[in-house]
Design goal:
- The chain contains 15 helices and 14 strands.
- It is of the alpha/beta class and about 500 residues long.
- Strands 1, 2, 3, 4, 5, 6, 7, 8, 9, 12, 13 and 14 form a twelve-stranded mixed sheet that branches. It has a two-stranded antiparallel ribbon with strand order 10-11.
- Strand 13, helix 15 and strand 14 form a beta-alpha-beta unit.
- The longest helix has 22 residues.
Length: about 500
Amino acid sequence: MTRFVRWAAAAAASALLAAGCSGGDTSDDGKGGLSWGRCKATADGPAPSSEWQCATLEVPLDWSKPDGETIGLGLIRAKARGGDRVGSLLFNFGGPGASGVSMMPSYAPTVSRLRERYDLVSWDPRGVGASEGVRCRADQEIQAAESVDVTPDTPAEEKAYLADAADFGRGCEKNAGKLLAHVSTADSARDMDRIREVLGDARMHYFGISYGTELGGTYAHLFPEKVGRMTLDAVVDPGADTVGHAENQARGFQRALDNYLASTGQDPQEGSREIAALLRRIDDRPLSAGTPERKLTQSLAVTGIILPLYDKDSWPTLTSALAAAKKGDGSELLALADGYNERDPSGRYGTTTHSQRVISCLDDRQRPTAAGTRKLLPRFEKISPVFGTFLAWDTAGWCHDWPVPGQHDTPEVGAPGAAPVLVVGNTGDPATPYEGARRMADELGEGVGVMLTWRGEGHGAYGSGSDCVDSTVEAYLLDGSVPKDGKVCS
């Protein structure tokens, strides 16, 4: 099964560092027994600088059995630079499945002002990276699955697509074992509260991006009295079910593509028709990509188109890649797809996709069928001629024949009595469309969800070039200054 995009953090495609915890030079905070030590290099990259410390926190595998078997969570932190410290600021970069241990050092320059008053802290959620990370397939199997048609046109292609999806799930079950039933968003929210406790903070100060907003909303629902200063940026719609999320993303990516096409002087409708026709040609005959063992398939082409839509500064890269593909050269789109799929030049793949799938399939109760998808296709194709078909079929394949049942149709995020939560929505966000931010603010509850809008482009608003957004978020997190609900930054 070739993944299509779900609640992804684009930053996961460009993570520069990976870190673990070494055994030497440890310091114990005396709060829950955390021993912080120097982070070590891994096979994926060098260790971060000495200002970063790593630790492992033991938490219950099953939160309904708090005295039972435990698992280890990998944590990373850099201490606050200033003297007027608020506490720890916990980050989740989305996915689900993005590694906070890997991402935090590379994201730190973006949030350097916040470090004046906060320890910057992140972690690998359960099932991710250094926290019992799940791998469902070997690298060779992942590459072989690139040939599976994820928009099947015949009964044989449909059978192969669903068989591959079921095989992926069996691989997850074989390698994750009983962990597979304990990697839900609610499990991670409870882990967050344990992290808050051992860090010595009376309240949870939190910055969630993309899927991290759903995790933050879940935490606020479970622990409203513990919410401190919480910012949710690039917001997942908490009211959308599996099909609803796919529709939202079809709408969001098409909107971003339209904006990209308009910026290049093209008519968005005509430009979309041309790209859709290109994808159909690639479906019939994959493109040469400069390497004899691999070709640019339709699925990889779509993934390659999607990655640059996360960031307006990457739009020229998309122009070049599309121009090359129209001439029969798929190498540039393949390189973009490989970046998204965390494939390095040696053929090694990252496991964000694996973690993403085991978490979301445990969360999502809905299991759309192939027959249901066929009925959805006209609606999805109307929403997006480029992305609709892929996202419609993704609803059927993503959790097909999954080994464990899902937990809910939509997450609970209502948090009456919680402190104000700053919800940041970007009108041009492709992966988490703007409408989801308003829904999150409403569902958190009156007096809790405070809406900030940025009229911009790309996945996420903070650190994306708006002084208005950055200053508003920083005033809230650093000084506790809550903006007026409905503030707009242009």
